[in-house]
Amino acid sequence: MNAAFERKINTDDRKQNGINSMEAFNAITTGALVYMDNHFFLTEASLEKKDALPELQISEQELLAYIHPDYINHVEALFSALKTGEVLPSGFKLKIKTDKEEKLLLVAAYYVNINAKSIGIINFIDIEKLADNNKAALALIDYEKKFKELDAAKGKFFSILSHDLKSPFNSILGFSNILIEEADQLSSDEIKKYTQYIASASENLFFLVENLQLWSALKRGKLEIASENISINTEAGYVLKKFRKNASDKNISLLNKIDKKICAKADVSMLHAVLKNLIYNAIKYTSSGGVITVDAELNNDVINISVADTGVGIKAQDIDKIKKNDLFFSTKGTDNETGAGLGLILSEELVKENNGQLWFETQVNKGSVFYFSLPAGKQFV
């Protein structure tokens, strides 16, 4: 990181440099606020470049002094999120003031990663100037859209915590209590059956928690990508092995038809996460006797990977919801399996992080094929 980026200027420095409250007010209205190492900095420089220089350290109390009383709660919530690393509220309007002037600003907050350090950035956009600046107006629309998406995502996140996590916990606790209270009366077969129920519920819970962790890291800008040359056949085989029992319980066959020579350049953990979610969904929507096939082909400098099933397919009205990327859309599986609806959205975002795309084809009562692309790596001979 640029050493200057770490520079902090205390109150005495400000006095010596002649920095007054009006300069701070101008910095807020024309620049950005940086939160780094538990301190706030104001800068009038554009922060599109990640090595921009924070020019003025300012305390939280000094910042709040500029905020119109009607907007204090919004700002305190933003500061609290910055300190805890949570998803930042963004896209809201804010009025700031001095004795001589008031301005209405749009707040756009996000994180950037610099040398493995997460830094909070808050940009301020002067509402009055938007009408004369088409580019800024488009930015406003984009910020408002992102804010609505984040707000909806936040609501769903709490819904998952309160509902979807509760179901597997109930199963684990319920069957555990049966084993504790009735162990002496249960046969070995019954004990094995209840233990399998607990194991299955625990696996589902762990899978959901893994997805939540990845999704949270994505939304907070803290997901690190380590691209490497990887064998798609080997990694697909590793993931398929984890689903052998799930597929066997539904009498579903899992096939790996990927050529062993095919390699992609991607983050192996993210590839695992995408394959896990697509294979999980394929099993969920495939009935007894079905087949799930994982395949891949080299197309110039791109690898197209597919997960095909012989399941129920996707209804027309549901296709529209998926293609519109409706947040957390989900339906029950062939054995009434439920889910949070997070997997497909997470998979698409992870694929994009690895410079790829995700798409699908489907026919009702015949099955679906989900494809995703990755940059081609050095192919094995």
Give, in order, the helices and strands: HHEEEHHEEEHHHHEHHEEHEEHHEE
Helical amount = 40-55%
**Judging from the principal axes of the Cα atoms, what is the shape?**
globular
Radius of gyration: 26 Å
DSSP strand content: 15-25%
Distance between the termini: 41 Å
Fourth-tier CATH superfamily name of the largest domain = Histidine kinase-like ATPase, C-terminal domain
Question: What's the architecture of the largest domain in CATH terms?
Answer: 2-Layer Sandwich
Mean pLDDT: 78
CATH C-level label of the largest domain: Alpha Beta
Give the topology.
Elements: H1 11-16, H2 21-30, E1 32-36, E2 39-43, E3 56-58, H3 60-65, H4 72-84, E4 93-97, E5 102-114, E6 117-126, H5 127-130, H6 134-164, H7 166-182, H8 188-219, E7 227-231, H9 232-242, H10 244-249, E8 253-256, E9 263-267, H11 268-284, E10 291-299, E11 302-309, H12 316-323, H13 343-353, E12 358-363, E13 367-375
Parallel strand pairs: 8-10
Antiparallel strand pairs: 1-2, 1-6, 2-3, 4-5, 5-6, 7-9, 10-11, 11-13, 12-13
Helix pairs in contact: 7-8, 8-13, 9-11, 11-13
Attribute tags:
13 strands; Beta-Lactamase; 3 domains; five-stranded mixed β-sheet; Heat Shock Protein 90; alpha+beta; 381 residues
